Amino acid sequence: MARQALEEIEANILALSAEQFGIRSAKISLNTRPVQDLGIDSLDLIEWMMAVEEAFDVSLPDAKEVGDPAYKEVFTRRYLTFKDMAELVHLRSGSGHTEQTGFGKATHQYHEKAAFSQLGGALESQPSELYRSLGKSDLGVEQFRRMTDGMVCMLLKGGSVEIGSKCADAHPDEKPLHTVDIEPFLIDRETVSTTAFCRFLNSIGAIDDEVLCKWFLIRPGERRFDHQLIESNSAGWSPKSGTEEWPMILVTWYGAVAYSLWANGHDWHAENSTFLPSEAQWEYAARGPTSKRWPWGDDDLESDAINAGKHQRHAAYKDVADLPLEPVNAKLGVSPFGGLQMAGNVWQWCADWFDPSAYARGGAPSCTGIRSERGGSWVSPTDLSRSSYRRGRIPDAKGRCLGFRCVGPYT
């Protein structure tokens, strides 16, 4: 196949992308970022890459080629644009399109689990005490149970903690390694489950479809409808069978904020406040007070230590049960405090605006229109689950690999 001119590839990339994402061509340009500007989730992004491979008869490198510069361009570039993809196709011209096995084995495996404590049904009345002490965990961490949703929460004592990275392969927005002062706070041991999110919906009364769509709802006929994990009937909202302990996905930043307010006994309408973790709180909770590459330390572990890189190319995930998600209480990506899945399974919304220059400036994040997410996911390559890795997307994005956990005040 003759090598196409870069300009021709760029035009074809725009046309293919508009068709693949169901977006009018006039709404995108070469500088459009699929994740940050369009809210495209990681799975759709990978499927788009497959379509690019087939259309241009090229082979994008897979996870086994992590040293390949093309792989780094696709999977670790901070703000991949359509122009970047066109340049990548030009670079890979002549490689030929080959069938690939994908990142990993997209199957459900048995992992040891903590006791599942999150509650379903509906909250009948506000509890007299929001947090009830559970004493110390085996790791010596004070634990509390949040009485609105049953979530086990960990008390992190705070202090002067290290944030960011000094590793050679860290991206500019992760640098420099610096210290911040953090007040004591509570953070959920697990990400919020489908069971608990249904409890929230069942407890707040009738909600307009417009609000539900702003939070999570995928209408019949829309993309990703078959992957919505919860459903409603005359009895209220409930998880689909077999997903009761799975993380709530396809939830926007606004839906996560509303839940976090309700769970902490506040008015869920108050969008000017939130009980989502800041990036600093999240990073501290993930790896402790000193800089480490992973929640468990600096040494890379076997891939089954976290649920990451499990997407298989050409996998359709026709049924919900096919999604290689792990239960929220599976003991994977465990932090020094006992937090579960502080690496992998699902990305987690944070309270902050995603500001690439915040660490370098040493100030509060500026309003960028993009909210931060941390932790990596079952779709992403393992390296994106590093504790200091930063990413963001538009707050109304709905991802099949995007969830959240809450924080709470310690008084």
Automatic annotation (TrEMBL):
InterPro entries: ACP-like_sf, CTDL_fold, PP-bd_ACP, Sulfatase_Mod_Factor_Kinase, SUMF_dom, SUMF_sf. It comes from the Bacteria. SUPFAM superfamilies: ACP-like, C-type lectin-like. PROSITE patterns: CARRIER. GO terms for molecular function: formylglycine-generating oxidase activity. Residues 7-93 form the Carrier domain. Pfam families: FGE-sulfatase, PP-binding. This is SUMF1/EgtB/PvdO family nonheme iron enzyme.
